[in-house]
Amino acid sequence: MGQIAQQQGGETGTAIDPAAPLLLFDSGVGGLSVLDEVRRLLPQAPVIYAADTAGLPYGSKSEAEIAARVSGLLGRMTERLHPRLVCIACNTASTIALAAVRDVLEVPIVGTVPAIKPAAALTQTGVIGLLGTAQTIRQAYVDRLEAEFASGKTLLRHAAPELVGAAEATLRGEPVDPAVFARAAAGLLGQPGGAAIDTVVLACTHFPLVSAQLAQAFGPGVRFVDGAAGIARRIAFLTHGQAFARREPDLALFTARPGGPEPWRALEPSLAARGLKRITVF
Ligand code: DGL
């Protein structure tokens, strides 16, 4: 403890600067649900939170566009910001681009995987719901997780892109029509066999940010599972023994189109509440 550890998964033998941040990346505020868990385990870790606001939402973009955008941005961010580890705190980006990003970056990369395995262990009825973006729910990555961890169970999937905007609005302090959450619940419960769902995988990092509203829409007897705590544990494992020293308040970065909207202004209280007290445009 207290020593400067050797980098894992990168250039072995290179001492890590204790101020080197963890870089958490998402298309918007969704990755803050992951940050909340990282704070619990590693409160002393310096963090840069990067939101690709100019590219939000990812869920309706093509796979090629997401892969190119995420690899390009993370390449540039890693060069400029020297993180000790990158976390793609976004299911859509991870299920599509994780392998490509790992191929080009030398720092350890932690991805976000839909929490099908823990959901399969928890369900009593054997019927699991999965809410994600349109891109995530149709990824072969999800098919593989289903085959590996949920064979013998029923996995019903529903794309709920409206919840992404709902989470963004909620963190900006704006009211959201409860019908948005009711539609997401109906999209799963209304499917053949859906009435037996007792466990729902929140396979988009935005969705845990509105879990209270979703709980109300789904009603009692349905529990939610997401990957945030597991991701935080993985980050703690990969940085075990490394020294952390926060030399300035943690930073939030937003991509922006010239002359485009500046959503981070209304997000300032939600960001500050999570220790992100500096905001800049990338
Ligand atoms: N937060 C992202 C995820 O986990 C997706 C939101 C978007 O559509 O950009 O999938």
Automatic annotation (TrEMBL):
Reactions the enzyme catalyzes: L-glutamate = D-glutamate
Protein role: Provides the (R)-glutamate required for cell wall biosynthesis.
Gene field: murI
Annotated active site: 90 (proton donor/acceptor), 204 (proton donor/acceptor)
Pathway, per record: Cell wall biogenesis; peptidoglycan biosynthesis
Descriptive protein name: Glutamate racemase
Record flagged with keyword Transmembrane: no
Keywords attached to this entry: Cell shape, Cell wall biogenesis/degradation, Isomerase, Peptidoglycan synthesis
UniProt xrefs under Gene3D superfamilies: 3.40.50.1860
EC number: 5.1.1.3
Membership in a protein family: Belongs to the aspartate/glutamate racemases family.
NAD as UniProt keyword: no
Primary enzyme class: isomerase
GO MF term set: glutamate racemase activity
Residues the record lists as binding substrate: 26-27, 58-59, 91-92, 205-206
PROSITE patterns in the record: ASP_GLU_RACEMASE_2
Source species taxonomy: Bacteria, Pseudomonadati, Pseudomonadota, Alphaproteobacteria, Sphingomonadales
Protein species of origin: Novosphingobium bradum
Record-linked Pfam families: Asp_Glu_race
